[in-house]
Design brief:
Largest sheet of chain A: none
Order of helices and strands of chain B: EEHEEEHHEEHEEHEH
Strand content of chain B: 15-25%
Number of domains of chain B: 2
Largest interface: A-B, 25 and 30 residues
Oligomer: heterodimer
CATH class of the largest domain in chain B: Alpha Beta
CATH architecture of the largest domain in chain B: 2-Layer Sandwich
Number of strands of chain B: 10
Shape of chain B: globular
Largest sheet of chain B: 5 strands, mixed
Helix content of chain B: 10-25%
Strand order of the largest sheet of chain B: 2-1-5-3-4
Order of helices and strands of chain A: HHHHHHHH
Number of helices of chain B: 6
CATH architecture of chain A: Up-down Bundle
Structural class of chain A: mainly alpha
Distance between the termini of chain A: 48 Å
Number of strands of chain A: 0
Number of helices of chain A: 8
């Protein structure tokens, strides 16, 4: 493990810490966690980092709550590009890394949240047991649709 | 005086050592969008609108804080740069409550002009609608955080030109706010001299004259700054 090999997989050395995760970690939730950190730590001097981390956090938060759309992924990538290229310091420049690498290696998890309204790891709020009450004719409660669709 | 020769958008130009890329571009009529920059104040490189591409370097450079170097090949306009600049202005519009139609500087606003110039016809990001406050405690001026873009021109002009250093930025990230003294009401500020420089340099309607607090009534003139700061060396004793 060296600086160059980490860079090729979209990561950085940082302080040398590693986090080991298995399938019980939701990668969208992981990306959201790191974006929340960057949003809170942003000093606010430059615009892309100050305002961009807030927007990216809200997009990720929306996806984990089952409110995401496929367009949100394009918007996340577009904001990632902006923050990486134009932020004043390393915080804003590297803030998109967890989003970009999870989108690259775990895009299916994002799509499960968006298309199937399902969190594969069972971490996100939408992963709570779907209401499986038999559909009552003429009754289309919103939560039943979110839970499984019809 | 040593001279640097470089190319900007393919055009060969020369510049005195120590000249910034922004100055070089403006000298040769290649306008770059800016927001935090103001002639007569120090540079902070915070708005990121004047970023340019420099051949041979992987990163973009803010033209206002990058000195012209020998042999540089600078590109000030590309699809990528245009996209970034538009995104930055979109983020600004989404960040606070910018409602041009009822703004005191409607039609004379630098943020509004930037949006027009950069082709920002709509905002694709979620409006934050932050719960901002106003400070109308000063007898002559008014502060509306809803229209502040945190360019810190007020902070710099007060410190560097007026010498009062009434303004500062409190908080961090999206919670950043400009404050007078130690976040005391502006009208109770001990350090404020009521000179009004901050109001004139503010690019938006965040700082405005009180009697003009309705739509589009205020035209600002930050041009006085260059006169104030350079009159002595240019021996302009009488304007």
């Amino acid at each position: 493990m060296d600086y160059e090999s980490l860079a090729t997989v979209g990561s950085i050395m940082g302080s040398g810490g590693l986090i080991v995760m298995d399938e019980t970690s939701c990668m969208v939730d992981v990306a959201k966690f790191f974006m929340s950190f960057c949003k809170d730590e942003s000093c606010g001097k430059c615009i892309p980092c100050r305002a961009g981390t807030v927007q990216m956090f809200q997009l990720l938060d929306g996806i984990t709550r089952g409110r995401g759309t496929v367009e949100d992924l394009a918007r996340l990538e577009e904001l990632s590009d902006l923050l990486r290229a134009t932020s004043l310091c390393g915080l804003g420049q590297t803030a998109p890394n967890p989003v970009l690498s999870t989108l690259r290696y775990f895009r299916d998890e994002y799509l499960a949240h968006i298309s199937e309204k399902r969190c594969p790891a069972g971490v996100c709020p939408i992963a709570r047991p779907a209401v499986s009450a038999p559909a009552v004719p003429g009754h289309r409660a919103g939560f039943i649709e979110i839970g499984g669709g019809d | 005086m040593s001279v640097r020769t470089l190319t900007v958008n393919g055009k060969a130009v020369s510049a005195a050592a120590g000249t910034t890329l922004l100055e070089v571009c403006r000298e040769h009529a290649m306008e770059l969008p800016t927001l935090c920059h103001l002639d007569g104040l120090s540079e902070v490189g915070a708005c990121r609108l004047c970023m340019v591409e420099v051949a041979g370097t992987p990163k973009l450079h803010a033209a206002c804080v990058t000195e012209a170097q020998e042999g540089m090949e600078v590109v000030t306009d590309s699809d990528r740069l245009r996209r970034y600049r538009r995104q930055i202005v979109e983020l600004l519009f989404a960040e606070r409550n910018h409602v041009c139609s009822v703004c005191v500087v409607n039609g004379h606003c630098e943020l509004q002009s930037l949006a027009t110039r950069l082709g920002m016809d709509h905002v694709r990001y979620r409006y934050q609608h932050p719960d901002t406050t106003m400070d109308a405690s000063h007898p002559r001026f008014i502060l509306d955080h809803a229209r502040c873009v945190l360019c810190t021109r007020c902070v710099r002009v007060c410190d560097e030109v007026e010498g009062a250093h009434t303004w500062d930025v409190s908080g961090r990230g999206a919670a950043s706010r400009v404050v007078t003294d130690l976040a005391a009401p502006w009208g109770r500020s001990d350090s404020c001299t009521s000179c009004g420089k901050c109001v004139q340099v503010c690019p938006t309607g965040a700082l405005a004259d009180k009697e003009k607090a309705t739509g589009g009534m205020m035209v600002k003139n930050p041009g006085f700054l260059t006169y104030i700061t350079t009159a002595r060396e240019k021996k302009q004793w009488i304007k």
